[in-house]
Structure formats: structure tokens, C-alpha cells
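Progress narrative, Year 2. Work on Ribosome-binding factor A from Hymenobacter mucosus advanced from sequence curation to structure prediction during this period.
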Amino acid sequence: MESKRQQKVASLLQQELATVFQRDLPHLFTGMAPGINLVRVSPDLGVARVYLSLLLTGSSEDLLALVQDNLKIIRQALAKRVRQQLRIVPDLVFFVDDSAAYAAHMDKVFGDLHIPPATAADDDAATGPDAPKRPKLFADEDE
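Result:
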């Protein structure tokens, strides 16, 4: 579980990295619009794991390679923005967040399932005289 300080630093880094990507360094991401889904900070506040998503068309591998190539520039721009709040800017480790694609895939899988509707005979069988008895959990339960 994250401490309140970790959560505050993660929130600050998420906001400021978004500003860096959109305002300070938009020339690096021509044709792409990286979004920051989540930032997790280590307990010693030394490492920040940043999960990126790709909002416009493009390859996630290309985005990750571009960010890795310009990591020093991104970290310097971030340091200028958070120098009043943080003593040390954490090392940034970027990952591609594919949770939106996974959620879309799961929606498609669930949408393709064919589940027949229950019939009245099925309902009667579950509550009939041959149905298994529910175990008594407490001594004062009525049957």
C-alpha cells in the first residue's frame, strides 16, 4: 500500500509530465499524443514508473522508443517544473499501458458469448423437493 507521500508525489508527477508532454515538448511527439494513465512511486521516492497510453494513431513500441531516446530531455523539463516541490527528481521508467485495449478485448469476448435464457423448468428444479439443502450456519436458524 502506498503512503500518502507516495500518492502526492505520484499525482504531482502525473500532472507535470502531462504538461511537459503537451506544452514543453510537443515537437518530440509529432503525430502522437501520449497520455499518462498512472504513475507509481517507489517507497524511497527514487523511482517513478510511468504508464503511457497512446491517444491518437501510432505504434506503442514507437512511442516507447521515442520516450526512451529523449529520457534525459524529458527528465530535465520535469525537473524545471517540480524543483520547488521535490528535492530530487525520481528516475523515470516508462511502460506502455494496454489496459484500454485489454478492456475492449474483454468486452468483445463477453459480447460474443451465447448464453441461453433460463426456462421455468430450470427454476423449479433448483427449488424443488430434490434440491440440496442449504447448510445451517447458526444454531438458531430455521429450516
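Helices lie at 4-24, 60-69, 71-82, 99-112, 120-127. DSSP finds five helices and three strands in the chain.
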